[in-house]
Amino acid sequence: MRIAVFPGSFDPLTKGHEEIIRKAIPLFDKIYVAIGENANKKSCFSLDQRLQWIRQAFADESCVETAVYEGLTVDFCRKVNARFILRGLRNAQDMQYEKDIAEANRHLAPEVETVFLLSTPEIAHVSSSLVRELYHHHADYSEYVSYEL
Question: Does the pTM exceed 0.70?
Answer without folding.
Answer: yes
